[in-house]
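Lab notebook, bench 4. Still working through the backlog of constructs that have no structural model yet. Next entry is a single chain of 116 residues. Request: give me the structure tokens for it.
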Amino acid sequence: MQCLFRKPIFPIICDIEGELIVAVSLDDFENQLKNFKLKPNHIYSTIDSKVEGWFLNVEPLIVSPLAIKKKWTQKTLINLYNKSKNSKNDRNIYFEKSNMSLEVVFNEIIELLEAH
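Model written out:
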């Protein structure tokens, strides 16, 4: 796996067909991707710990900053988690908390994902 321009700040969350995975390094990310049948010529949404948008390109396997959706909002991050297979399987709904920073929400979602 290669990074285009620069490396994301770990941990990261990647949305693979509605299932969210957490990776703590590039090697960890690449190893976890082996558990999925990735679609050729498909781009998967990825978010780093700065809550910056990235994408995973399958062929070749590249992680790059996403120019279209640079920053995520608290609402879109929570919606991503609540609509994910992870949340539906565990019935863990994350409720919006307006008094929390985006980074805190990101870290709490990471904790929920790592717990299961």
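Notes after review: The two ends are 26 Å apart (CA to CA). The CA atoms of residues 51 and 106 lie 7 Å apart. Flag for follow-up if needed.
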